[in-house]
Design brief:
This protein is an alpha+beta fold.
Amino acid sequence: MNRTNEIISINSISQIPTLEAIRTIPREHTLKLIFEKGVENKRQAVGQNLKTELVGFQVGIHTIEPEINICKLITDKEIDDNQDFFEQCAKDYRQLG
């Protein structure tokens, strides 16, 4: 699955999307928050808070670049709903070996 990047430049803390807004992004999208000069020192604290608050999301705090990447993970319900597909993928993979 290819994800579409949505990039938001953050010039002030008030520009960070709300948790509710982040939760509505589809799994096919990755949200990239780019912290500009003046607020890049807040990136680590903001990222740790997002990791705590966003259950079911992967929050990656870049160690060098001033950015945070957020994407939605597959849910248990989606796995259950598509169990036959995943089992067939495993069987196909075994056949390839």
